[in-house]
Amino acid sequence: MAAGCGSWARLWSLLALAALVGLGAEAKNSEDVRCKCICPPYKDHSGNIYNKNVSQKDCDCLHVVEPMPVPGPDVEAYCLRCECKYEERSSVTIKVTIIIYLSILGLLLLYMVYLTLVEPILKRRLFGHSQLIQSDEDIGDHQPFANAHDVLARSRSRANVLNKVEYAQQRWKLQVQEQRKSVFDRHVVLS
Question: TM spans, by residue (predicted)?
Answer without folding.
Answer: 98-117
